[in-house]
Amino acid sequence: MPMKSILAAGAAVGVLSVVMPVQAQETVNAVMERGALRCGVNTGLAGFSNPDSEGNWEGLDVDVCRAIAAAMLGDPDAVEFTPLTAQQRFTALQSGEVDVLSRNTTWTLTRDTSLGLNFAPVTFYDGQGFMVPADLGVTSALELSGATVCVQPGTTTELNLADYFRANEMEFEPVVIEQIDEVNAAFFAGRCDVYTTDASGLASIRATVAPNPADYIILPEIISKEPLGPVVRHGDDQFFDIVKWTVYALIEAEELGVTSENLEEMMGSSNPSVQRLLGVTPGMGEALGLSESWAHDAIAAVGNYGEIFERNVGVNTPLGLERGINDLWTRGGLMYAMPIR
Amino acid sequence: MAQADTSAPAQEAHGLLYDPRARAVFYQVLTLAIVVGIGWYLIHNTLANLAQQNIASGFGFLDREAGFAISESLIPYDASDTYGRAILVGLLNTLVVAALGILFATLIGTVVGISRLSSNWLVAKLASVYVESVRNVPLLLQLFVWYSIITVSLPHPREEMTVGLDIYLTNRGIYVPVPLADPVWPLVGLALLVGIVLAFVIRRWAKRIQETTGKIKPVLWYSLAVIFGCPLLVWLAGGAPIGMDVPVREGFNFQGGIVRTPEFTALLAGLSFYTGGFIAEIVRSGILAVPRGQTEAARSVGLKPGRVLQLVVLPQALRIIIPPTTSQYLNLTKNSSLAVAIGYPDLVSVGNTTLNQTGQAIEAILIYMTVYLTISLLISLFMNWYNRHIALVER
Ligand SMILES: N[C@@H](CCC(=O)N[C@@H](CS)C(=O)NCC(=O)O)C(=O)O
């Protein structure tokens, strides 16, 4: 697959060098005509995006894609998933191979500007952590000087790692491998002392890939901010708006107590906010250039943000993550939807 | 002058149209114009599209801080160095693995190629099994196999395995002691070079003697003597330093000595054995292409089998072997970019990270293309020179 990333980059070069019409709703039109949303996801990270035994994609990032497809096309299954490594993802988005990237992608200034991308609201507030074998006898990241560290290239992880060791005047040897399966194999074979990535990723790998999860511990230090969210390319503001407000609708639904289960009941709610969200009071759909049932369809498909979280990564899943800072702002978290009006 | 004669220009133009030289020039200029035109069109559009999508362009990023670490490097490098230096580190890593790969693939190919023709059934069969298997399994797969052999079957540094002489095999790498720094060592290196040059001189001298008197000198022994003798003498004269920097376990890994990482070892092994299989076939067919009559004639004048191979068969076979081997060398160099799959920081691996962090795909691809083109052209030039050098001089 390394060839694939070169090819992807090559394709980007190719696509960028033919005339591209300057057209504002390019992506929206393409999605509508095709009748499907092209969504770039992880190659496989349980809880975020992972094909099940029948090849159906599932996970938090996947549900975001399905919500957007439901809002735009009324059908959560109208999604073509493209698994991408960290290296391939941006060229795939820039060259138009995918319409939106929903793949544990950290919002940074460089990506938002020089890479020509736009970040929709954060769907998971994360931070980078370290995982080590329990029998290594290490209890803090500050004891890691001289360690060998497994990391995926083309990530913020790679940069934070170098920053952290530099700031603490420690040394390390990186082992940098592109495919997640290969990094996992190298780490569990003992090629590295430490595995570093987003803490949610570590939890997932520990729970679903480790031969025996109890043999590995995640160190307490969180060394960075990793706000993860969907990304689109510059050039189609309407599409950016749709992605942005679909995410807000999922969060707003949780705040208003609208769930996939009580949805039809809520259609009769007397709360004006609920009426606007679900299109009972028309206007929001029209403003986005979508049908008035856009948010209704998205919630019907995947539930509100809280349901998505609990189903994929929550305490009752193998990942077992607490809501923490990913809880609603009304409960002390950071999830805060802009007013839908 | 045009006014004076009216018929001449017409005739000239007519003549030009049918003049093969003029026509050739015209078509070349036309082709060039079309190529330049298309090139300009593509570049223009690319820049326009990049600007429209607000994607950064230009090579300014090469001076910015890279911010990521690289696992192995021939030159000092750390995360606060620039992207430009990071790419240079990657380029040097590519050159090292390609050069060593070419060396080992050639050795393996020669031995196996000759073995396939061996009259010993077992040797010949083993050689063909090797050739058939490495040539028919994709290289990427072979790299993964080598990499997992090393990382899974070799022990962890905590329960390391030693083969004696303070050499340690672990799944973090192979640790080998190196002599402690001493002013004598560079001189020993120099003496080795001198020895190699001397060996060439001796070869020429022996050839002249043989051509004039027919006497055969034991060139091999003389050469070995100077190649090893010169450095040995310098080392003894320099006080024979024997201090070694021995790898010892410290903290998480071994410290001291030199280490060859599993990524490097797996890539080198993969490239060498894979390309070696192809070179073996080239060597075999090169030898088979020398008419049997040549061997028989050489035998009948009383040459021993070894001398027949050395003096009659190989020089003729080489001429057939060199051109296809050149393209194997080029393949090996380009295949070294598969390094990225097993995490060896070659040009493409470091370049891809740079591409990803800066978003400057076009620039990165241009760098790859320029580098691989340059390396390939250099290898071709050298091999063409060598080919001409050994070509049959017709008298
Ligand atoms: N959030 C970081 C890292 C994202 C990342 O690639 N994470 C890894 C480990 S959690 C991953 O998802 N790998 C899955 C894959 O390569 O398909 C970034 O945006 O650079």
List the helices and strands and how they pair.
The complex is a heterodimer of chains A (341) and B (395).
Chain A: H1 2-16, H2 26-34, E1 37-41, E2 50-51, E3 57-58, H3 60-73, E4 79-83, H4 86-94, E5 100-101, H5 109-112, E6 117-119, E7 124-126, E8 128-133, E9 147-151, H6 156-167, E10 172-176, H7 180-188, E11 194-198, H8 199-208, E12 216-218, E13 226-228, E14 231-233, H9 237-256, H10 263-266, H11 272-277, H12 284-288, H13 294-302, H14 305-312
Parallel strand pairs in A: 1-4, 1-5, 9-10, 9-11
Antiparallel strand pairs in A: 2-3, 6-14, 7-13, 8-11, 8-12
Chain B: H1 7-18, H2 20-52, H3 83-116, H4 121-136, H5 139-153, E1 161-162, E2 168-170, E3 173-176, E4 178-179, H6 184-213, H7 219-237, E5 244-245, E6 248-250, E7 253-255, E8 258-260, H8 262-288, H9 292-300, H10 305-335, H11 339-342, H12 347-358, H13 361-390
Antiparallel strand pairs in B: 1-2, 2-3, 3-8, 4-5, 6-7
Helix pairs in contact in B: 3-4, 3-8, 3-12, 4-8, 5-8, 6-7, 8-10, 9-10, 10-13, 12-13
Bound molecules: glutathione.
